[in-house]
Amino acid sequence: MSISKFWATLAHDIERMVEDAKLSRVSRQRSYYAIRFNGKDYGPCFGDKDLSMKGNFNQEESCSCQKDDYLDSITESTTFSVDEYEVFEVYRK
Question: What is the per-residue pLDDT across 46-89, written as a single tens digit (0 to 9) for each?
């Protein structure tokens, strides 16, 4: 693959990720639920019910989404699986 084709492919992939990205803020009254960990069997949870991953995340229906503490719904799906996720670093303000 040529360098120019590599950069064009990378630019396209980044553009697609940005287009598909979803941004929502947690409500001020429920900010303590923004990101939390429910124990060793769970991944990071966003809101109380807004996005929850438990058990083996890549199994069908192991993750769920129900609008609760965030202002907008994170996804239209109520249950789903996750191939992989990445957490960079979380700082307390």
Answer: 888 888 888 888 888 888 889 888 888 877 888 888 887 776 66
- Whether 6 and 14 have beta carbons less than 8 Å apart is answered as no
Residue 90: inside a domain, yes or no? yes
Q: Coil, strand or helix: which one is 70?
A: strand
Q: How many domains does the chain have?
A: 1
Question: How far apart are the C-alpha atoms of 72 and 82, rounded to whole Å?
Answer: 20
Domain that holds residue 65: 25-93
- How far apart are the C-alpha atoms of 73 and 51, rounded to whole Å? 9
**By three-state DSSP, how is residue 71 classified?**
coil
Is this model's pTM higher than 0.90 or not?
no
Are 41 and 54 in contact by the 8 Å Cβ rule? The answer is yes
Q: Is 8 within a domain?
A: no
Is residue 1 domain-resident?
A: no
